[in-house]
Q: What sequence folds into this?
């Protein structure tokens, strides 16, 4: 004989209270998530702090399964094992791809890293990034492209990444900058974001208000609207300021996280050979806004020499014909001199 299952010993009025409490909890959590993702970084400081505290205490749902190792907030420089080690980051798929197994991520993010022969730095960055980004539950991939011309490599990384997956957000990331704070969310807000605002090399102060170099985030729509980066900055410097002008020219604003969050450590290095400062980079900037209308992503030209899905990243090796790009530019500039008048001189581009 089976005994009848007794009713739970809770009066109906208590039921309602418990339900109300749960609904309130869910609404609060959803609002926090919504506000964190959508607010202007400066205003989200309290919420980010709150979320981080929950996360640190293991109360934030992301960490419930404890599948990912806890990494201290201050990520430090060290000598990580080889990036091809199979044991490292078992959840990361070939090509440096990761997506959370317990949910569908709200953010599909491609990290694009321009690279020039600094293997140790790349390993260091990859190790830190994979630790950080998996805990942010992003659906992401890492793309490393090689050759000199930072801006063009970023355009190329973008172009190749969208062929592989439907990314909606792009983080352009220098190889020598290591994020130092877990609250640096690698997603895209409604305005372009300059991520590396506080770098140890500059005493964690913003060097100048228009700076957009180092690490920056744009949505796909924003990147297409500003016509990507300029292709003409062969050598060192200027391309990030050019991008800032493109962003402003298209009616966007640059946002940043608070300075106590946007912290990065710069790994020391000397400037590479063949990557000298561009003497006329200031001249290039004079017509940056107008040039953005006909030069950039829309005129990108390159040849893939090698594309390989390594364990922690997708490797893109390309050939760029500088002569051809500059000839193309002079040609386009001539046509546009008619549009923009005599103040627009193509000679200033030539190296
Ligand atoms: C680059 O382009 C120029 C002009 O089109 C061409 O003459 C030259 O052979 C090209 N260089 C290489 C390395 O392909
Ligand atoms: C310059 O533009 C003209 C007209 O659009 C085109 O016929 C020519 O091939 C272009 N030259 C170069 C080097 O791109």
A:
């Amino acid at each position: 004989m089976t005994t009848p299952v007794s009713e739970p010993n809770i009066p109906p009025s208590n039921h309602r209270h418990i339900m109300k409490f749960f609904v309130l909890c869910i609404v609060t959590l959803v609002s926090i998530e919504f506000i964190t993702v959508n607010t202007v970084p400066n205003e989200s400081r309290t919420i980010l702090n709150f979320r981080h505290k929950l996360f640190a205490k293991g109360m934030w749902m992301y960490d419930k399964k404890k599948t990912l190792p806890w990494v201290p907030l201050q990520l430090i420089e060290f000598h990580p094992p080889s990036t091809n080690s199979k044991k490292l980051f078992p959840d990361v798929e070939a090509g440096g791809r990761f997506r959370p197994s317990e949910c569908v991520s709200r953010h599909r993010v491609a990290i694009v890293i321009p690279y020039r022969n600094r293997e140790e730095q790349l390993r260091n960055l990859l190790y830190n990034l994979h630790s950080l980004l998996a805990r942010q539950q992003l659906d992401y991939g890492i793309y490393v492209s090689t050759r000199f011309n930072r801006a063009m490599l970023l355009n190329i990384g973008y172009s190749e990444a969208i062929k592989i997956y439907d990314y909606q957000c792009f983080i352009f990331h220098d190889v020598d900058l290591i994020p130092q704070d877990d609250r640096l969310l690698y997603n895209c807000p409604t305005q372009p974001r300059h991520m590396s605002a506080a770098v140890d090399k500059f005493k964690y102060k913003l060097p100048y208000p228009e700076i957009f170099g180092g690490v920056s985030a744009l949505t796909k729509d924003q990147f297409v609207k500003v016509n990507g980066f300029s292709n003409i900055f062969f050598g060192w410097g200027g391309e990030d300021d050019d991008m800032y002008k493109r962003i402003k020219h298209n009616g966007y604003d640059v946002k940043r996280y608070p300075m106590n969050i946007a912290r990065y450590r710069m790994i020391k290095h000397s400037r590479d050979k063949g990557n000298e400062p561009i003497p006329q980079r200031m001249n290039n900037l004079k017509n940056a806004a107008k040039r953005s209308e006909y030069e950039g992503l829309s005129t990108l030209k390159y040849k893939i020499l090698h594309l390989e899905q390594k364990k922690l990243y997708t490797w893109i090796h390309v050939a760029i014909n500088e002569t051809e790009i500059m000839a193309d530019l002079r040609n386009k500039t001539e046509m546009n001199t008619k549009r923009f008048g005599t103040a627009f001189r193509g000679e200033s581009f030539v190296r």
The domain at 65-321 is CATH 3.90.550.10 (Spore Coat Polysaccharide Biosynthesis Protein SpsA; Chain A). Residues 37-52, 54-77, 342-351 have pLDDT under 50 and may be disordered. Residues 299 and 328 are 9 Å apart (CA to CA).
